[in-house]
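Quick one:
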Amino acid sequence: MIKLGERQTLQCVKKTDFGIYLGAGGEDRVLLPKKQVPEGISVGDELDVFIYRDSSDRLIATVKQPYINLGNLAVLKVKEVGKIGAFLDWGLEKDLLLPFKEQTEHVKPGNSYLVALYIDKSNRLAATMKVHRYLRNAVQYGKDDIVHGIIYEINSSIGAFAAIDNEFFGLVPAKEIHENLYVGQNIEARVSEVREDGKLNLSLKKKAYLQMDEDAAMILRIIGEYDGVLPYNDKASPAIIEKDFGISKAAFKRAVGRLYKEGKIDIGEKSITIL
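Output:
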């Protein structure tokens, strides 16, 4: 049986002027165009090929290896956006359609996104950004491990969903987000919790004692941009702190406290000054 969207070994059953026909032992046959036919091939020889559809929706074989196979995930670049969706570069002559209804947000030409390859209701290959069902629960990661992933969907009330190593389910909870994230963004995160179901909760912050060093350096830099005097102290509202520094008030107070103890700043009634 010839399988759409998969790489398989087929046998040469007929040679023509425009290519060769390949089969799998039954009546089904698929064309491998002449420009891709290896030299010296004969009827009865076997070839490893990938099966997709051409511009006329006919099954066709290629010896090329696409960037993604059926049921798998890959990060693909958008070549253009048309009337029915976006078209992705997946390494073959005919671009791969990402329908609008399969996008978790409107994509932009030139940007890359994590997608899965599936067969639609019309028996055509297509891409989807709704990759949740293709991800697996992780068993090899532990709390505080550093992982890498890509964001594939953002829900303002739940958080940012990320695929770790393009394979495992991860979530940056909304309460952990203190910066502007976007779909398609690559992230480095710390595993804050391995849930009972095997899914990973993530934090974009390092462990507190490590994060404090980075926060303190960042606070000094930003106060410097205020000519060395921040027009409020550590009692400012969480909203103001988040707007100026992108961190929580608790993290701000920890870092400011360290800087004060190290004698690098002075905390006044209405300001913080670099010494």
